[in-house]
Amino acid sequence: MRVPRLVGLMAVDARETARARGLFLNAPDRPDFHLTVVDYVVRQFPQPGAEVPQDSMVYVWFDFGEGEGGGGVREPRIPRPPTGGLQRELDRPGDAFEVSSL
C-alpha cells in the first residue's frame, strides 16, 4: 500500500484519508491530536508514495521544527522595502543650485 500525501490537509481530512487507506496516524507534536480539527499538516513520515504494509503508522506534524522556519510556504520576505516612504536627496555642500526652504 502506498502512503497518501497528507501535507497541506487539515487534521480532520488527514485522519479520514489515512483511515480510508487502513493506516494509523500519530502526531508527536500534538498530544490532543484526536481533538485537532483545522490545523494543517506541514510534514509527514513516511513520505507520500512510500510502500508500507496495511495498519502501518504514519507520523504527521502541524508545526515546523526548530530551525525549519516556514518561509517556503509564503513569499520570500527579504529584501524588505525601505521604510518611511519617499525620501528626498540632500543637497551637496557648496552646490551652486542649492535649494532653500522658505
From TrEMBL:
<dbReference type="Pfam" id="PF03793">
    <property type="entry name" value="PASTA"/>
</dbReference>
<protein>
    <submittedName>
        <fullName>PASTA domain-containing protein</fullName>
    </submittedName>
</protein>
<feature type="domain" description="PASTA">
    <location>
        <begin position="2"/>
        <end position="62"/>
    </location>
</feature>
<feature type="region of interest" description="Disordered">
    <location>
        <begin position="69"/>
        <end position="102"/>
    </location>
</feature>
<dbReference type="InterPro" id="IPR005543">
    <property type="entry name" value="PASTA_dom"/>
</dbReference>
